[in-house]
Structures are given as C-alpha cells and as structure tokens.
Amino acid sequence: MNQLEIILAKNNFTLEEIVYLLQTRGAEQAFLHAKAEALKLETIGNRVHLRGLIEYSNRCSKNCYYCGIRMANKHVERYVVSDEEVVDAAIFAYKNKYGSLVLQAGECSDNAYILHIENLLKKIMQVSNGELGITLSLGEQSRDTYKRWKEAGATRYLLRIEASNKELYEKLHPANHSYEKRLRCLYELQDLNYQVGTGVMIGLPFQSTIDLANDLLFFKSFDIDMVGMGPYIEHKETPLYAECKQLLSHEERYQLSLNMIAVLRLMMPYINMAASTAMGSIVEGGREAAIRVGANILMPNITPFKYRENYFLYDGKICIEESQEDDLVNLKALVSRAGSTLGWDEHGDSKHYWHKQNI
Ligand code: 5AD
Ligand code: SF4
C-alpha cells in the first residue's frame, strides 16, 4: 500500500495525516474524493436535503474584517425583511416540500429584536403546522435568548467559529470580538440540546494548512452535528482586502475546500455538511462538486429578490440577480449532476445528533 492508502485505511487521522490529505492533488486527490463519496453513500445515503435560506436582515453590530456587511461599511443599504415576507417565504418552503428553513442575519441583540424573532418563530411554526424544521444563524446571543428561541420552535443553530486557532481568529476580528465568547455560545447551544453547526472559511490570509487540519480536529473534538464551510472570498470594502495579494488563487481555495469536505466526511460520517453558497460562487459547479465529495445539504436562497443585493458578504456571491440558479428545476438538475436525489419534505436532521441522543 502507498502512503495515501495507509492513511485512508485508518479511522482516526493525526494532524500530520490530515495535512497530507488536504494537500493531495491529481490522482491522489481523486482517490480521496472517491473514498469520501463511497463512505457517504454507505452511511447517510445519497439524499440531499434542502434548507430554504432567508437572509432576514443585514443589520449587524459587528465588524468582522472579512465581511461585506460589517457595521462600519457605510455603502450598504440596511434592511430587515418584513414579517409578512418571512411568513410568505416559509409558506413557499413548506408548500414546495423543502422540509426546513434557515433564518440568517447579522448580529443584533437588543430586547426588541430578541422578542421579534421569538414571535416570528411562533408564526412560522403556525403556518407550517409545526412541520418545518427551523435553523437559526443569528450570531452570538445570551443563553436565555437561545433558550427562548428554542422554546419558540428553533431546533438547530449555526454559529461558525470562522477559525479555530485563537491567534488567527484575533487577526480576523477587532479587539472587542471575543473568541472565548464564541466558544461559550457553542457550548451553551449544545447544552440546550440544539443540533449545533459550526464552520470555518478556507484560504484566509495568515491561515496555514496546519490551521485547517486543526479546524477539522476541532469539529471532531467538539462533536459537532453540522458543518458549513467554504472558501474565503475577498470583498473590496473590507479591511482584510489589504491582504489580498497573499491569498491563494480562487482555484486553489476551491480545491482545498473540496479536500476539507472530503476529509471531514471521512472523520465524521454521520454529520450534516452544507455545499455552501461560497463554493458555488468561487467556481461554477462548486456546489455539486461539494456534494460529490461528501456534502449533503443545499441552502437555496428564498429571500425576496429586492433584498438580495444588500446581503453582499463577498464579491461574486451567486443568487443575487433574478436568475434561476436556486429555482426548483435547477436544484433538481444540480443534485442529479452530483449523482444524488433530493430528500423532499424531510427535516433531514443530523444523524450524528440522533446517534448521540440515543446513547
Ligand atoms: N468570504 C466567505 N465567507 C464569508 N462570510 C462572511 N464573509 C465572508 C467572505 N468574505 C461567511 C462567514 C459567516 C457567514 C455568514 O458568511 O463564515 O459566518
Ligand atoms: Fe456581522 Fe456575521 Fe458579517 Fe461578522 S460575519 S460582520 S457578525 S454579518
């Protein structure tokens, strides 16, 4: 057996082995991808689940150096989707058998906002007979807020760690953002029995392959249920753009992202893993490739079109124009190109989560 086969025959990879796997290209990379695809089919099958994504608001009290909708970016026209439009989007997702939706926004934590979300969750539950799975992606909040939102109907929460290396995290965020707080939030979400998702950006300035390998070990040791990760894509109106000369090419970030997905699927066979919008934005066909190598979740954008150009996290984000990238016909074609089928009308819960509950 060659070195790659020896590594892949194991079920626990060391840091050095993960680094090796992440760096494979050509025939070795194809072999890694085929292994990950085969394991996915064996464990969670070939169904891809949908989460209708509502980009609820681009108001944000944070200033992450990489993000286009950071508070300090004055060129952004701020919006909040009306309750009526959210409810309409939820009904659309329900009627079209998406099975679940994600409510995502920048970070706000004033009392009025917290209450507003709580009531909105109750409305969504009502119009979907409590059948739509609801995921929140609304940033760092207090334990009490997470608890209230869970009681109002949310079952899953996405909060990316962005970079699990504290030093790297601190290079990507201003001093008033706290790595410890982010970790605490993840623990609290887990403790409240949410299905918890996290993730990182891939190909960031100052990030090494060792950092990425450690990110994967972090997901494993945290026993995470869901992961959404994708390439970092620069945005001109952000401080991190100053570092764009030291970035890997888009193609390299894309290849590295595919390998991250494949290796994580081998490490955590039962988790849910998204084929992120950033994967589809950096390379055409990126989302189907992500599904091929291990992802099993798609998050079609169902935000009303008039808001989409204002949720501009990075340059070249797809599904902004009134194109049909995320309509149902196209999604079906995308998934079938990836050799998979759509899991209609199912929550598509993380099997990893349920395995943990049944221990
Ligand atoms: N490139 C890629 N992903 C980004 N995000 C924010 N800015 C960028 C960017 N420039 C991701 C972050 C955040 C999610 C909502 O979007 O990981 O958690
Ligand atoms: Fe706000 Fe999230 Fe963007 Fe950070 S990544 S600035 S918290 S929307």
List descriptors:
binds 5'-deoxyadenosine; 15 helices; 12 strands; 7-stranded parallel β-sheet; binds iron/sulfur cluster; alpha/beta; 359 residues; single chain; 3-stranded parallel β-sheet
Number of strands: 12
**Ends: how far apart?**
36 Å
Poorly predicted regions are: none
The hetero compounds bound to this protein are:
5'-deoxyadenosine, iron/sulfur cluster
- Biggest sheet overview: 7 strands, parallel
- The mean pLDDT is 95
Task: Note the run of SSEs as H and E.
Answer: HHHEEHEHEHEHHEEHEEHEHHEHHEH
* Strand coverage percent: 5-15%
Q: What Rg, in angstroms, do the CA atoms define?
A: 19 Å
Based on Cα principal axes, name the global outline: globular
Give the spatial strand order of the biggest sheet: 2-3-4-5-6-8-10
- Number of separate helices: 15
User: What percentage of residues falls in helices of 4 or more residues?
Assistant: 40-55%
